[in-house]
């Protein structure tokens, strides 16, 4: 990903601000998803064709993860090691979502659409966070 599209997407040329914005967006989306999964695990489980207990557990985990990513986003200079961990967790989540869809889950049509869609979103977060971190390191 070149710097220009990244700066246009983040609406800044400062890589530290880019990184913090991408982390913040990730925290809001992940936390919101987690709240929805946890609070409405029964209806969402029925809609997506996924066990409500699985959704409840995922929801609680996503809320906690979102809070952690939010704390990173709130820091003036998020530690590179922690940001790299967020990128890696996001990549693992995206890959495991697709693997789960193929190997373990038997979702409804809505679930078969939602699961890869959220994997793409999370993979996108990983890509822009990695690019911003790389840009920050390059500018030293």
Distance between the termini: 19 Å
In quaternary terms, these chains amount to single chain
Please give the radius of gyration in angstroms. Answer: 16 Å
| Overall pLDDT | 93
Largest sheet: none
Order of helices and strands: HHHHHH
State the secondary-structure class. mainly alpha
Per DSSP, the total helix count is 6
Helix content: over 70%
- How large is the share of residues in beta strands? under 5%
* Total E-strand runs: 0
The dominant shape is: elongated
pLDDT below 50 for ≥5 consecutive residues: which ranges?
none
Describe this protein's structure.
The chain is an all-alpha fold and 140 residues long. The protein contains six helices and no strands. It has helices spanning 3-10, 15-39, 41-48, 52-74, 80-103, 109-139. Helix 2 packs across helix 3 and helix 2 runs antiparallel to helix 4 (52-74). It is elongated, with a radius of gyration of 16 Å. 31% of the residues are buried. The mean pLDDT is 93.
